[in-house]
Amino acid sequence: MRHIFVIGIGAGDPDHLTLQAVKAIGRTDVFFILDKSEERQDLIGLRRRMLADHGRPGHRVVEAPDAERDRATPAYAAAVDDWRVRRADLVERLVAEHLGPGENGAFLVWGDPALYDSVIAVVDDVSNRGGVPFAYEVVPGISSVSALAARHRTTLTRVGRPVQITTGRRLAEGFPEGVDDVVVMLDGRAAFAGIDPEGLEIHYGAYLGTPDEVLVSGPLAEAAPRIRELRERARERKGWIMDTYLLRRSDG
């Protein structure tokens, strides 16, 4: 039986690897890397450094262009479903062609595989198809959300209050009702700058755990213009951006 690990590798710092992740990497014969664009070669380079440090001798690396998603269509859910189907087709082919019976394969996932990532769903889809039999397990990782809180030396929750995790797309519709602490991910359009900043603080982080890390915190009204300028400068320099932030209603 083939075996596949879905391994969380942290937000960008090689030291984010857990001991469980290191052990799984050391047991893997074939690593599958889905390349999203030439602009992210430094992320692929970071993965390769992790494999050089912790991979077993003779391990193999299989790279393939990832399926592209239509980000312009208003039919968001349908576009995501179509993208996941094409990703599953790709993963099924890679496993069939490159992972032999009795071997271990792995997908290295940024942050934690269970938080805003589709690899688990894709691997589960391929498994349910039954064309390439394999068993799989998920190794949790340090998410960008936990890294964000740690770098700002704060907690995500306060006594007796919940925290909500949402997307920039949803935040653009308005600050969620009934919660005071909101973590925002996948915000490509700076939705934080379009909401009423009254009484809100922001803890922002980009490229967390990497040499390019950007951290900003303070009242949203004051911090939003600075964050927009910094993130645009960073996006222009690197060609991409990975960021997240915590919005918090102040007690005052």
Number of helices: 7
Compute the gyration radius: what is it?
19 Å
- Indicate the mean pLDDT: 92
Q: What is the 3D form?
A: globular
Structural class assignment: alpha/beta
Q: Strand order, main sheet: write it out.
A: 3-2-4-1-5
**How far apart are the termini?**
59 Å
User: Spans of 5+ residues with little confidence (pLDDT < 50)?
Assistant: none
Task: Give me the count of strands.
Answer: 10
Strand-residue proportion: 15-25%
Helix content: 25-40%
- Main beta-sheet strand count, sense and barrel state: 5 strands, parallel
Helix and strand pattern: EHEHEHEHEHEHEEEHE
Structure description:
By secondary structure, the protein is α/β, with parallel strands linked by helices. Helix 2 (41-54) links the parallel strand 2 (30-35) and strand 3 (60-65). The mean pLDDT is 92. It has seven helices and ten strands. Helix content is 35%, strand content 24%. Helix 3 (76-98) crosses helix 4. It has helices at 19-26, 41-54, 76-98, 119-129, 144-151, 168-171, 220-238; strands at 2-8, 30-35, 60-65, 104-109, 134-139, 163-167, 181-185, 200-206, 214-219, 243-249. The strands form two sheets. It has a five-stranded parallel β-sheet with strand order 3-2-4-1-5, with helices on both faces. The chain has a five-stranded mixed β-sheet with strand order 6-7-10-8-9, sandwiched between helices. The termini are far apart.
